[in-house]
Structure formats: C-alpha cells, structure tokens
Amino acid sequence: MSDEALVVFTPSGRRSRFDRGTTVLDAARRLGVDLDSVCGGRGICGRCQVTVSEGEHAKHGISCTAAALGQMTGVEYEYAETHELAAGRRLGCTARIEADVVIDVPPESQVYRQVVRKEADARAIAVDPAVRLYYVEVEEPQLASPSSDATRLLQALEREWSLTNLVIDPHVLRELQGALRTRDTVSQAQWRVTVAVHDGSAVTAVWPGFHDAAYGIAFDVGSTTVAGHLCDLRTGDVLASAGEMNPQIRFGEDLMSRVSYVMLNPGGEKELTRAVRGCLAKLTAELAKDAGIERSDILEVTLVGNPVMHHLLLGIDPTELGGAPFALAFDTGVRLHASELGLPVNAGTRAYVLPCIAGHVGADTAGVILSEAPYENDEVTLVVDVGTNAEIVLGNRDRLLAASSPTGPAFEGAQISAGQRAAPGAIERVRIDPETLEPRVRVIGSDAWSDEPGFADVRVTGICGSGIVEVIAELHLAGVIATDGTIDGTLAARSPRIVADGRTYAYVLYDGEPELRVTQNDVRQIQLAKGALHAGCMLLMERYGIERVPRIRLAGAFGTHIDPVHALVLGLVPDCDPAHVTSAGNAAGTGARIALLNRSARDEIEAVVRRVEKVETAVEPRFQEHFVHAMAIPHGIDPYERLAGSVPLPARKTGAANPKPRRRRATTGRRAP
Q: What is the pLDDT of residue 1?
C-alpha cells in the first residue's frame, strides 16, 4: 500500500496526494482550499468541520467511505460533548487522511462563505471582514530572554499565523499582561489569548483564552430616520435590526433647515453632531441587548448618510453645503476609531464611512451603488432612493450618472394633514371603487382590509407615505383628482366622501375616529415632492441620451413599500413597464452591510464613485422646466404609454379651479433660507 493518499476537496475541485496521517486542515492549507480555523488547529473553535463524500467518484477514480479519515479522535469526542457536531462531521484540524478520499467543505466552514443579500436580487456577498480573530499560545517570559509580552505576542502571531509587521493598539498593550496571565476557561491554562487583527495590520482587541465572538454594525444615517443592523462577522447573518427618528429633526425637518440652524447659531453644528452620535450610541446598546451579545465584541462599524448627515456625523460644519458650489470637505472613504464617534463598543473598534460623490450625492448613494451594482450590468437601470432627499443613479457598466432631488418630508408623512410615520395603525394600502368612490384601506399591523371581518378591532391612527401615494393615485384613477392635481368638487353630489374644505375640497378616506381626510394641500405637497424627483430623473436621462429607461429600482424604507403601479400612476418616476419597476429594499443600508462584511468592497466602491458623473439639479436650467411638467398626474406632456398598456388611465382633464403650481423655494430647495 502506498504511503500516500489522493485527496480531492469539493466544491473547489482541488486535489493532490498527501502522506497518510496528514490532517485535513494541513492538506487544505497546502492546497489553498478555503477551510476556516480560528484556533490554529487545536480543536477548540470547530470552524473546520468537513464531511467525507462517501461513494463512487468515477471522475476522480476514488471510492471512499468515512473510514478514509480514520477513527474519531479524543479531541473530536470532547468537542462533540460540549458543542454541536452533526453526524458525519469531522474536525479538519484533527481528522487524519488514511486513504483516498473526497472531502466536502460545507459553506459554514469556508472562510469566504457566500450569503444572499436579498431575495429580490440574489447577489452574493463574500464574507471577508476587515477584522479577524486569531488564537495564539504565547511563550512565557524567561530570565534568559527578557522580551516583553508584546514582542512575544507578535512573535507568536508570526510563527502560528504568518502575520508580520503588526502594530498593537495602546489599549491592547494596557490589557495584554492581564489577559496573558488569566486562566483559559476552556483549558484552564495561561499564556493563551485570542486577538482581533484589523486589516492585517493592527491588533485591536485581546481576550484571555479562546474567544469566538466578533460582530459589526452597519448604520444608515438618514435625515429622518437612523437604522442599524448588527451582523455576525463570521457568518454574515443579521442578528438584530433597530431604528429610530433622527433626533436632529428638532433643529429642522429637512437638510437645509439644519444647515440654516448652523448658519444662524454659531457652534450649532456641535449640537447636531451630539444629537446624531447620541442616537447611534443608543441604537448600538439596543442592538447588543436585542442580540444578547456583549458590546465589547462589536469590532467593526460601517456608516452611510447623505452629505449633510455625513459631515455632521464627523463633526464637520456643513455650511458650505448650503449654497453653490456645495463644496464637500472631502469625498473619500473615512477610516477612524469608533470611539471618536462616541459609540459604546470595544476600544479598538474601527469605523468606516463610505465615500461621498458630490455636494448633494453622499455616502448613502455610494451604498446604493454598491448594493445594486449597476456598474456590473449591460442594461441601463434607474435606481431611485426615495426619501426626504431623493438620490438618483442612472447607468450601466459603461457610464454612471448620479443626482439628488429635494423631495422634502412629504413622502415620510410630514406636511400631510393626517400624515404620520410608518407605524402600527397607519394606513399603508388604499383601493377606491371607481363607481361608488368608496375606499378600502389596510393599516400597518393588520392583514385585514377595512371591508373584512378581521378589521373590526383595528385602530387607525393616520396615513403613512405609501398610503398617501396610493390614495392619490387611486383618486386619480377614479377621476376624483384631475391631471393638474385638483380635487373635483362637482363629485360631491355623487359621493359623501367629497366634502368642502374651505375654498377647496377634500376626500374622506376614513370616517371613523379619528376622521382622516386627503386635502387639496396634501395633494399639492405630494405633487411638489414627486415633481422634484421626476425632474431629477429626467435630467439624468437627458444627460445620458435616452428617452426611456428599461428598468427602475425603488430603494429606501419608503421606496420599498411603494406599489410600482401606483408610483407610475402618480408620476413619481418616468414611464416604464410596471413589471420592470421593482423594489430594491433599503439599498443604502445594504451597501453599508456589504462594506461591513467584505473589506474588498470598500476599495471597489471607492474606485467606482470616482467615475460617477455628478449632475447638480440646483444649477441645471432645465430642472424647472422638467419640474413644471412633472407636477401634473402622471405628467404634463408624457402620456405614459407603457403604463397605459397595462393600466387604464383616465382621460386627461383639469379641475374647475386650476391654480398654477408653486415654484419650489429657491428653485430646488438647495439654498438655505
């Protein structure tokens, strides 16, 4: 019998002959097979689990059984007693090759495992975070060789993991002596520690003995809401999510109001910075509590936000963003200690802020681009992140354009008479009978429609953004709202839902307690918001040289819940086949999560944003013209033929009272008052 055995690893297909008795982990490392291990082959972490692919493998000329890896070792039995080791699984660090074998490395045992980002777009993320854990045994100090604990730690990392040229964070130096001299809870031995190494260059944390917990948070810092996702840096799983209103709202609902506050109140930027950092600190504590983890195990943070949020988060005066030429302080990605942002995490935790693109196209847009990856596709796609300040990206692998439009807070429920945030009790879905003009509604927190028995005990509190979009679109389809946005008062004789409201009319959407109406001013607010968004899209399409877009992706917390057909009926976005208008989820937050879980994605997005063409709507002379046409429902001059092919649109008409659409303050709302 030969002293060597043929070993094939799947799914990589790599193969070679090895001496019998070689461990699976050693064979994998020599072949460059992706097999994880934190403990360095000591049978502690359990990450190197493998299985034997038993049976005939004609392709490789191998017939094998589980016996090809020999008998279970004492280390494996001990691990199985204290941890879960599924039937047929072996620890690659102790299992030895005794015969020709085909070894399967399951996804959870791979260093660069793939996780699906979202169901709607099954793009995988290779989990390769910037921070990794390493378990090492450090030599005890000797009188004959009086080297420091730090030196011996670095020597151990080089000897066991081939890590060189490392530096050690100052706080780790303060904790190192105690960690080395604390007994390992697993083996009750000293001089064994786990360290976190960031980006292969710095030791950022240390724990006594074996430690296998590493987490990160991806934050999306919006002007209205702040959201965070706590992820396991080993698996890529999202363990907890949380969000809350941005406390800066008390200084102004929109971005320019906050810039104005800073301009009118010297030192005001410090108040705004404290507010948003306090919000992030609160969310960090909440996420850790919800996931049941220690905050000291949070080792990495990524953040996205629009330029004003970006600057205020970093403690930078945003005044220059309040007027042309809207100069950013800087536009590159930012790497800093999370402690500089006041986050209650490990002292060595690093934070990464994605790059900005232009004065009103920020790191949140970079997150959207990273998430949707239009730069990888041949087909031109329009990506719209709908929010208080809408970000728009158009293009493909050949060319990318980006802009933002000041839609204001109407889509978030603000400036709407019965508007509210998306919360239980808010109307989110509306259907209106075109004959009787009677509505059916559904609210957040209930699956029942208002004409179904299950709705009887439902409490209705207001109308959220998706609800106001749907009711205006439905009223237009029913002929209640004319092309110019006027509520047709002549229909009051036909339906008690149409009621006088001062000099105009309103529609009673809900006649319970409280009564909820859609007023003429509500319609105007939505017209202003959607007109600005549509105009921004048209500017990009003109610059790109196309009249129609083949595909539209709606992103953002609001964009995710918009019904594509209603968005098109309202004219929120340019005409498109409704089947090709889809949700992208919270793309900005997803981009932050990709950057959290994959360090190479950071270099990728920094390279991509450098070639994005920026279109500043505030100085584009055509913006106002597009805006005026886009005030109409769905549009003043575009018949929306592709939408009309699947949805019967009403005849174009104007109301009895046809007030001219108001000009946007300061043309686009960019300049601070």
A: 59
469 Cβ contact list (under 8 Å, min separation 6): 411, 526, 562, 563, 566, 567, 570, 572
* Amino acid identity for residue 359 in this structure: G
Q: Would you mind telling me the total number of residues written for the chain in this entry? A: 673
- Dihedral sign (CA 25, 31, 33, 37): positive
Domain pair 4-109 / 131-208, same fold: yes
Q: What is the DSSP string of 51-75?
A: EE--EEETTTTEEE-GGGG-SPPHH
Q: Return the amino acid letter for 673.
A: P
Which ranges of 571-618 would DSSP assign to H, the alpha helix?
Answer: 587-597, 600-609
Helix-helix angle 363-372:600-609, to 10 degrees: 110
Q: Is the pLDDT of residue 660 over 50?
A: no
pLDDT beyond 80 at 79: yes
Q: What is the pLDDT at residue 633? A: 96
Q: Which residue has the higher pLDDT, 85 or 203?
A: 203
Q: Which residues share a beta bridge with 225?
A: 245
CB atoms within 10 A of CB 58: 7
Q: Per-residue pLDDT tens for 208-219?
A: 999 999 999 999
CB environment 171-196: b (16+ within 10 A), e (fewer): bbeebbeebbeeebeeeeebbbbbbb
The beta strand positions in 324-408, using DSSP E, are 334-337, 350-353, 381-385, 390-395, 400-405
CA distance 517 to 502: 13
The number of C-alpha atoms within 13 Å of 419 and in the hemisphere containing its C-beta is: 19
d(CA 295, CA 219) in angstroms, rounded, equals 16
Domain 4-109 adopts which CATH fold?
Answer: Ubiquitin-like (UB roll) (3.10.20)
- What is the token pair recorded at 611? 């070639």
Domain chopping of the chain, boundaries? 4-109, 131-208, 216-366, 418-518
Band (186; pLDDT cuts 50, 70, 90): low
- Res. 122: pLDDT tops 60: no
Arithmetic mean of pLDDT, 636-653 = 90
Q: What are the pLDDT digits (tens) for 387-429?
A: 777 889 999 999 999 998 878 777 777 678 998 877 889 999 9
> In terms of Cα–Cα distance, which of 290, 257, 567, 280 is closest to 389?
257
Residue 615, helix vs strand vs coil: coil
Cβ proximity of 658 and 486 under 8 Å: yes
Q: β-pairing, 381-385 with 552-555?
A: parallel
CATH 3.30.420.480 fits 216-366, yes or no: yes
Write the pLDDT tens digit of every residue in 367-393: 999 999 999 999 999 999 887 778 899
**Distance (Å, rounded) from C-alpha 149 to C-alpha 116?**
42
- Tell me how far apart the alpha carbons of residues 69 and 599 are, in angstroms, rounded to a whole number: 35
Between CA 533 and CA 570 the distance in angstroms is: 12
What is the architecture of the domain spanning 131-208? Answer: Roll (3.10)
